[in-house]
Amino acid sequence: LTMKAFGEVAASMRHPVGELTHRQRVTRLYRNALRLQFSWAVDRDIYLDKADEIRARFDALKNEQVDAPVVAQAIAAGEAELVEFTHPDPYVIPYMPGGSKFMRNSPPPPEAGLDLTGTNTPVWPDMVPITFRPFSAR
Predict the structure, then answer these.
(1) CA dihedral defined by 121, 124, 129, 131, rounded to 10 degrees?
(2) For 26-41, what is the mean pLDDT?
């Protein structure tokens, strides 16, 4: 009987697949707002000021109940604002896909047939392989 009760409680606490929890939605909204602001800000000081404003907007509703209509309206308005102010050319870290340094020194394609593994043949101080010189010169 206790296992059945435990199963019912556990089932009631699960979220449907694909649905985000309130905490996940708020965290993603905050993170995406900061990323979007980083794309629009020209200077680091401007970005930090705007980040403080964003944080203040989130902190204003921090103590509200999760299921309060004011919170649901704020989240919906924030997500709509993200869509409205999407940057046409967002900032991308240079070495990530889409960045200016991505694949700058990429390896040659396999069809080039280059052997880049190297050899472990010992060499003389003048960089001539030991196996190249005859025995009498050694």
Answers:
(1) -90
(2) 94
